[in-house]
UniProtKB/TrEMBL annotation:
GO terms for cellular component: membrane. Long-chain fatty alcohol oxidase involved in the omega-oxidation pathway of lipid degradation. It comes from Neoarthrinium moseri. Residues 269-496 form the Glucose-methanol-choline oxidoreductase N-terminal domain. This is Long-chain-alcohol oxidase. It catalyses: a long-chain primary fatty alcohol + O2 = a long-chain fatty aldehyde + H2O2. The keyword Oxidoreductase applies.
Amino acid sequence: MVATRPHAAPTAVPLPPVRSDTYFTETQWHILFALLDAVLPPIVEAGTVTDKRNQLRISQEEYRGAYELIRTSQAEPPDLDKFKEYLGTRQSDSPRFVQNVKRTFETVPIANRKRLASVLDLLGSRLGSFCLTGYCTPVQELPLHLRHSVLRSWTTSWLKTLPQLARTIVSIAQKSFSQGDPLYHQLIGFSDHPADYKPGPDYDFKFLQFAASEQPAVVETDVVIVGSGCGGAVCAKVLAEAGHRVLVVDKGYSFQPSQLPMNQESGSKYLFENEGVINSDDGCVNILAGSCWGGGGTVNWSVSLEPQDFVRKEWADQGLPFFATEEYQGCIDRVCEVMGVSDTHIRHNHGGQVILDGSRKLGWKAKACPQNTGTDDHYCGRCHLGCGSAGKKGPAVSWLPAASKAGAQFIEGFEVSEIGFDETAGDKKAVGLTGTWTSRDSQGGLVLEDQRVKRTIQVQAKKVIVSAGTLHSPLLLLRSGLKNAHIGQNLHLHPCNYVLGRFEEDIQPWEGSSITSVCSEFENLDGNGHGVKLETINMLPYVTLANFPWYSGLEYKLNALKFRNMNGYISMARDRDTGRVWPDPVSGAPRVGYVASDFDRAHVMAGVIALAKLCYVQGAQEIFAFLPGTRPFVRSKSDKAGTADVEDSEFVAWLTSLETAGNKPPVTPFGSAHQMGTCRMSRSEETGVVDPRGRVWETEGLYVADSSVFPSASGVNPMITTMAFADYIARNVAKDFLEED
């Protein structure tokens, strides 16, 4: 470990310039920003308008009522001048907002960008504008109040494409605003790092470096592991400590605790796949996946739940009896011991306490969630963007340093192209891999592209372990010429819907651990282990505000100011039905096909209703369900907060309205932070991708060890399950070495 000096804040990780904005014309960008301004319009009081075309005027009475609402509902409301500045801001005047929007489109599939460009062209023509808005004037020339009205009409249009278009525009605006608006952050009291910030010790992984050359560099090892996340890191430690030469490669980069947590913009860029979020092809699901040194274990929320007995029995009944044995429990116990998993030290924040106390009032099953925090208190809500204290004992803090001490080597910034095979003996034997390494710049950063070396690397190895994650592991197998029809199929996502409650308490919801409690009352709604868990969510602003219900520009801006008093929750399904992943034909990046089935959506909906009840009995003053066409529940002033009487007629009527609205995709936002199953383990090659020991069917020396090998959804946050699989598979690799010797 390398000692670090005290910091007042993490060392900033700068963003590179936006790559290019040439995928939209200047006119198309102008149209897009005209629509984004309609989402978050500059709002002024009647009589103070200075730009009739680009300001939204409201009456003096409505304006002052809006301020009074915020003044009386917030513990630390803004003064009137700051409130006026906030409401009156035009986001497209902010270079930071503009850059954020343009950066959002860098990783959007080309086909999707072309579709949006075509829509923008339509809106920029008189005929197209008339068809889509009802006005013959091109949309960018409409005054702001009409653009705002058009956007509101789209959200409830009978024409399916218009609500989808509205949701896309709204989400982009809300994400870019909530990530980077400094005035907004000031008004709610949010900062990018904890007030008592003290970084944990840095660790020098001594990453291999290569000089510039047209010739490939060759590295020889016993085992090469693709991916440094929860699967790869465990394999690295187990095999290095068993005496094997181990090389871990990852396309992501390492960031020290002194650089963490990052701000919301840099964290999205450097820590997550696709610069923050992957959208399923129909836009139904927003998928979060880690993409950095340590993988998902760097950005997850510390939840360390074990796979439940009914899931393990299901897998055993599918011809994988190992999962019902004490040996598999031993794998679970080992990985928990390494990270100091425990629930005895937990300090619940307001959100976690709502789950526990509300469930007790309603007679529901709930418990504390064990954390992988070394049996220590870890009251940090910003670990979604990296753990600065190093209190979260994920791959980069525990497993990979242990592997390093046992002799493992590491390469960051290594994009693997394909696995190499020796087929001279008639079998397909993995003998290494090839890929492209991209160095850091001369400042040790990732910004100065002209200073970054690119070089082809060839790794020669006796064994190859693919731990690239559920989205990338199947793509690497496909790029390497494997033909198993199950590769990329069987995708489980644990789809979620959201509920937010606004409480009277001054919560500051970004403080405290993200998830410390779970309600399991509804985990088995079909009698076969499919249902939902009810959990809190991380409350960094963009995580929830990017998809917050948008009713109008004024309501959104006011609701965003109430964020300090809010807590968010998810209804997370153990999905029975599946999707698939495949490579984009142009970029090769993962494309996801997943639509939550009627069966799974019904379970998620039951969880939404349950979450609303939890918020209600715990005294929420407003409850927001992220369902299309629904309004928030507002508690009557005469109603006693905290009552357990969920049969209140107004509340029951509101719940009925939620059930009527439903959660049908694609207009309902679903989220996913768990991806599983695309290289599933099976008893035969006719039903899966890897055998019961983790070896890829029809190959020798090739293994997969990550959440992609789950036979079905785990039903709990998958870190511990993934690590236990990896522990088991790594020990099988070690046994194979012994047998070959």
